[in-house]
Design brief:
Elements: H1 2-21, E1 25-26, E2 29-37, E3 59-60, E4 63-64, E5 66-69, E6 75-76, E7 89-99, E8 103-111, E9 114-119, E10 122-127, E11 137-143, E12 146-156, E13 162-169, E14 178-181, E15 185-189, E16 192-197, H2 205-208, E17 222-223, E18 230-249, E19 254-262, E20 269-274, E21 281-302, E22 309-318
Antiparallel strand pairs: 1-13, 2-5, 2-7, 3-4, 6-13, 7-12, 7-14, 8-11, 8-13, 9-10, 9-12, 15-22, 16-18, 17-22, 18-21, 18-22, 19-20, 19-21
The structure holds calcium ion (3 copies).
One calcium ion (CA) binds at residues 212, 215, 217, 220-221, 311-312.
Length: 320
């Protein structure tokens, strides 16, 4: 009986430790290229596809490689940031995994449709069937010390189109000492310390408080006076390396606006501007992360007769 209790304790401790550590490392940041219409998985849509080593702006078979930073574990090729709705098309996703040592790992893959994956030019799995994201393949892979090139090719037959990819050590733990290119976004929004605005519509702070920009409630909003220009300044708790800014406009959007950053709140550097804003959700992905303690949004020309009105601003940084 004593022996059995001891055994039970050991098992419980092991289960507990395993659960504590078994956190998946989803790769959420990729370079993508496509969509290639009416292509299939077996076609070599891009010449010498297994040996690809693209960078942002490279062109392959007439399509540009661009960055896709997602916050979700599933890379949705039909989402707004990627290729949009598509049936009967092929898309590619590429990333580099930088490993601090030679090691074995488990790569867990899910995909909506056909998937073909290469690691360092070696085809590690091909599944040419529509199967849904609930099915998962687990492949043992060898990471070299230094750069490892991971290429995923997905074929959409119908319906949704996407995949997920996560890396674990062979004993099911999270792997430390890995870096990625494109770099991983922080999965959490950066922490905001303070927000000020140039004006609040009708001085009605209860209805249009600038704090409503960061309350994660898409029903509450900040709204300005009905004049140009207007601005909001967001201060972070600590300097952050900003990578992605999502603006969720209410009906009263900005046609022309700019984003600037500052470390001291006095000297500003413009990081983005547009004169053809369309409202809705605008996702601004910076080519390189920028260090900032403050972010300023300046509305220069309103899209409607009303003021500037935003439901949310979501700001994401790079993990250290
Ligand atoms: Ca589709
Ligand atoms: Ca599909
Ligand atoms: Ca809100």
């Amino acid at each position: 009986m004593r022996k059995f209790l001891f055994f039970l304790c050991v098992v419980l401790i092991l289960v507990f430790t395993f659960n504590q550590k078994a956190r998946a490392l989803y790769i959420r940041d990729w370079l993508i290229c496509g969509p290639f219409q009416e292509a299939v998985l077996e076609d070599e849509v891009i010449q010498n596809e297994q040996g690809l080593s693209p960078q942002v702006g490279h062109i392959s078979s007439g399509k540009e490689w661009r960055e896709l930073n997602t916050i979700k574990n599933i890379i949705d090729f039909e989402g707004r940031l990627a290729f949009g709705p598509n049936d009967g098309a092929v898309g590619y996703a590429f990333c580099e995994i930088l490993s601090d040592k030679k090691q074995m790992a488990l790569l867990k893959l899910k995909s909506d449709d056909g998937i073909k994956v290469w690691l360092n030019s070696e085809n590690i799995i091909t599944q040419d069937i529509a199967r849904g994201l609930q099915f998962e393949d687990i492949v043992t892979v060898y990471l070299k010390k230094g750069e490892n090139k991971l290429l995923v090719k997905v074929n959409d037959y119908y319906g949704g189109w996407g995949f997920s990819c996560n890396l674990l050590s062979v004993d099911g733990n999270e792997i430390s000492g890995l870096k990625f290119e494109p770099p991983a976004l922080a999965s959490e929004k950066v922490v905001v310390k303070n927000i000020t605005a140039s004006s609040v519509q009708d001085r009605d702070i209860n209805s249009y408080n600038p704090l409503y920009l960061i309350d994660s409630d898409e029903e509450t909003r900040w709204s300005s006076d009905h004049t140009d220009p207007q601005h909001v300044i967001i201060e972070f708790s600590t300097p952050e390396k900003l990578k992605r800014i999502d603006l969720l406009w209410e009906t009263a959007y900005a046609k022309k606006y700019a984003l600037s950053i500052s470390l001291d709140g006095e000297s500003w550097q413009e990081i983005y501007s547009t004169d053809s804003g369309e409202g809705g959700r605008e996702i601004i992905l910076l080519k390189k992360p920028v260090e900032a303690k403050f972010l300023k949004l300046v509305g220069l020309e309103r899209g409607t007769d009303w003021g500037y009105s935003l439901l949310e601003i979501e700001i994401y940084g790079i993990k250290e």
